[in-house]
Specification:
This is AAA family ATPase. By secondary structure, the protein is mainly alpha-helical. Helix content is 63%, strand content 4%. It is elongated.
Amino acid sequence: MTSGLAEREPQWAELERLAALARTGKGQVALIGGPVATGKTALLDLFAEHLEATGFTWLRAIGAVSERDLPFGVAAQAIGPIADEPGDDRPRAVQALCQAILGRATRDRPLLVTVDDVQHADEPSRDWLLACIRRLPGVPALIVLTEAAAPRPGATTLHTELLRHRHSTRLTVALLSEAAVGDPAAFPLTGGNPLLVEALREGEPAYRQALLSCLHRCGPDASEVARGLAVLDRLPDDAPEDATALLTTAGLLLDGRLRHSAMREAVLAGMVPGERADRYAAAARLRHDQGAEPSEVAALLLEADRADGPWAGAVLAEAAEQALQRERVEDAVRCLELARTFAEGAGRAAAVARLARAEWRVRPAGVTRHLPELIAAEAAGELSRLDRVSLVRLLLWFGRPDEAMPVLDRLRAATEPERLHALELWLAATHPGLARPGTLPHSGEETPGSVATDRSTAAILAVLGRGATEPAVAEAELMLQSARASDGLVWGAEVAVNGLLVLLYADRIDEARSWCDKLLAESPTAPITAYLTAVRAEIALRRGELSAAWQDATTALDLLPLAGWGVAAGLPLGGAIVAATRLGRAEDAARLLAEPVPDAMLQSRWGVHYLHARGEHYLATGRDYAALADFLSCGKLTAEWGLDAPGLVPWRTSAAGAWLRKSENRAEVRRLLNEQLARVGPGPSRIRGVALRLLAATSQAHSRPQLLAEAVSLLRDCGDRFELARALADLSRAYRGVGQPRRASPMARLAAEIVEECGAAVLRDEVMPLRTGLEAGAGGADPRDRLASLTESETRVAALAASGLTNREIAAKLHITASTVEQHLTRVYRKLRVRHRRELPADLFAHLPVAA
């Protein structure tokens, strides 16, 4: 037996038994039944070929629906051409044909007659078969018939006749079991249907063709049910029970649905395009009328690729809003694209406005194609207030203030000021020159979806404009706890990005980094990931992590091309330019500065980041006056806007540094630095540390070490490694200037180590010669080899003492008593054989980060 007859062994054995009886002159008849395409034909043909090879004469015929009305059509296939006798002569002709056929049977050459799909045989041929069956006893012949099992088999004359005879046998073949199919992955695709199992082995085209063939053999009603299931994935209420049962027994249905998505795809692929669209459109209307969810109806409309009537546009809009809430932005865009295509007038304008807002979340640059239509619709009065607000924001995002201002003017003229508070607040924080004078954070009108955006923007203004750091930070952290990418009226990431920037501008770098990493892990789209990554680059810069800043800034620009960034490009470009400059990648920085950006960017908050970065690059490349011009421009803009907070950009310290490079205007330098110190206050701050470092340069030599030591302490505590290296280098020079080379050497060594760790190539020429010169001039023996004898606690205390801290300061940092510090130092001096802390070896500074 062949492998193609898995689980057909009992049927084969029974047929062998009947064949053996036929050989002995005991004629037999067998009827093989079973669902459509379950291998009845394969079993019949293989067994017939087997008997023919063993001496049987084989006569064969196949029933077909198209030949049901052809008299003697089936019989003629087995016998040859037959003339249909009219009227009363037909029975006599049938008997004659029967006797002629059975007369061929001999014990040497038994006769085998097979009729496949006998249910489709014409009436005269059935009469002929019945006549043969009645005359089988005593004839060495075997008749084997197959028929597809009907859901409710009727008692036809043929069935009745078979039941009457002891020489008749009924056999049944069923679907294959999962074990017989062999491949676990194939069973769900086939349901054990042998035709599909075999076709699946040949590949997808053969599988699809076999499935369509199977449906065709199930009949037109079953094919219609399958098409309905392929479209709706549920049985229609009026689905014929017989057709459903037929599909189930054939292994195509499971729990009233097509068994596998591949079956659904095959059925859909078998439809002509027009039929498929019509079916989906009709299904959409049906499900809408039945009260189905908008998302389900919208999915059907999208498959139909049409939205006939206002009801369809409304469904698509509602489904798009639901998709946005579920972070399925692409689904929302598809719905709105379709709604726009078939809408007209104000309905189309509203659809385009919604589409632009949704598409901004996944493809910001693509939104520009909608702007001309939206501008025309706004001028024609076809946009709602919300849509006009969105249009103003989009035009300003893409650096088109000349087109935004007429829209904004008309909006202001037609709307009460309190109803535009959220927009005015956003303008004051992002495009301050366009905001109404005197815009201040307050509750305003709480329009749905805008409250979080309003609050986050108010927090930005508070921390930049009024120095209300603590309330703004508390508000930002509260918003970040519940921030989602879909929050916000126009742009999904705005609340999250604003919250992070509040922390950044407030110099809460560690908190900002923690929240940024959390949000990035949950980011749903590439643009939102780009915005968050750009913020993380700025965070890394303020920590002195130059390689990380470069990686994040360039990643942000890769994730979202410049055309999509609009005026906000100032943030990632600025971060990348500063990182490249500090890393010594001057060509990369110059390339980034050559990238075209909207002119309007320089009149936005994002432009201040860019201007300050450009100034730092100019300063590093020897264009001091160009750098000074950029830093002072930052100051002029932020002062005009009322956003002159050091946390945005420290333009005063940068300008002071540029003046110092020229060794001129010391009075202006001190004024700028004192202003900066007054603005940051006395608390710990990296900006305060930088200001103190620069202020030391304008002070008397004997005052510098104290100022620089405080700067070092602040910068070390705040975690800015780049500025710490600068402060340490200056402190080393200051110690050298007051005749304390042994205190200068460890500062130079630590500064050099940090420069190497950070990759701050821009500082190498400044720091490395300093270290080399100090070490060469130190001379003499030192007790560094004895460091290994110190305990961990002694090492921590000694390292802090070597950095210049007093016993009380060391005690506060290590949370121990001053007496304990003194005891540790006594033991350290004895082990290292030194008398004073100024004689402590410079190698202790390698332990300073641990000690701090």
